[in-house]
């Protein structure tokens, strides 16, 4: 059974890991968000792709939810001492990856090709594809003005309420090589329990990706990022409340209208009307057993 997954960072990578621990990893293709990508001190950083890479390679710092285990911060401390602007934290090992990627992009290698090389170097067997090789950037409209995604998320600690999101470059961005093919070859399309607005939104803003989902001939489902009406981490619940009018399964379903056939919800949300067929299970991927239980519920879903 081949599965194609749309994924953001934390929830996306945990779910990608759950699937690739349960299926042969070669049957799993992960399409990752690049709307969060940012240039930091001249380096190209792709936080969601990196979280997925590190997670599938087993080197993510799970406590922090981003970056690598056994990280050190010498470069950052040195830069700070020298008066550098280090608002975006990059550890030493993490920097190594950004150097390799930035160098390759500078030579004209597409993001998808660099990502494939990095995955191979990490021994990751699942396929990881950026949604697009083109420039696509998320902007966040707030009462304090509009900010590039990372300026809002990291720089301002996502404290501002969100009035809207905009995906610069989405009108002209094409799907990266392999993305449409993977979605068309899949036996199941799954949307990870990621932030619907800023993790999955940028992927679905690419017209040809959305069209493949709309015209799918295989089942598609999404896993809700909510547990008991709240997110495990991050601002998705606040965004759902303000932009979709509530923090229940129905508002998650609304984000994916016409694109999914079922929603996987946590037991804590089982009583809520989701406005679509639901599959109820425990969705917190706290350990290997929990990941497997969720993956099996998804793969065995009667859709
Ligand atoms: P980001 O790019 O790192 O913000 O990551 P995502 O958008 O992929 O994931 C953020 C979402 O993942 C949050 O809304 C969390 O509620 C959700 N999430 C994280 N871990 C889990 C989990 O184990 N189970 C479920 N159901 N959701 C999770
Ligand atoms: Ca992200």
């Amino acid at each position: 059974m081949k599965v194609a997954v749309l994924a953001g960072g934390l929830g996306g990578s945990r779910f990608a890991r759950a699937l690739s621990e349960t299926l042969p990893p070669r049957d799993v293709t992960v399409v990752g968000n690049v709307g969060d990508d940012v240039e930091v001190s001249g380096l190209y950083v792709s936080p969601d792709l990196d979280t997925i890479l590190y997670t599938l390679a087993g080197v993510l710092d799970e406590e922090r939810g981003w970056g690598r285990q056994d990280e050190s911060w010498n470069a950052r401390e040195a830069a700070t001492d020298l008066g550098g602007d280090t608002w975006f934290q990059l550890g030493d090992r993490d920097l190594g990856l950004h150097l390799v990627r930035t160098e390759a992009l500078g030579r004209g290698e597409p993001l998808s090709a660099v990502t494939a090389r990095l995955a191979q170097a990490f021994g990751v067997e699942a396929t990881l594809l950026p949604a697009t090789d083109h420039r696509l950037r998320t902007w966040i409209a707030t009462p304090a003005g509009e900010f590039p995604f990372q300026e809002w998320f990291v720089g301002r600690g996502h404290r501002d309420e969100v009035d809207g999101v905009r995906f610069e470059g989405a009108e002209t961005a094409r799907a990266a090589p392999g993305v449409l093919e993977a979605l068309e070859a899949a036996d199941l399309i799954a949307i990870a329990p990621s932030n619907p607005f800023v993790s999955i939104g940028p992927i679905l803003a690419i017209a040809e990706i959305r069209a493949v989902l709309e015209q799918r001939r295989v089942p598609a489902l999404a896993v809700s990022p909510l547990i008991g009406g709240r997110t495990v981490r991050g601002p998705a619940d606040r965004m759902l409340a303000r932009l979709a009018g509530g923090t229940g399964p129905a508002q998650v379903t609304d984000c994916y209208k016409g694109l999914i056939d079922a929603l996987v919800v946590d037991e804590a949300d089982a009583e809520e009307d989701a406005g679509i067929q639901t599959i109820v299970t425990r969705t917190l991927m706290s350990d290997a057993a929990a990941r497997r239980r969720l993956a099996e519920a998804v793969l065995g879903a009667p859709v």
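The chain is about 40% helix and 20% strand. The mean pLDDT is 97.
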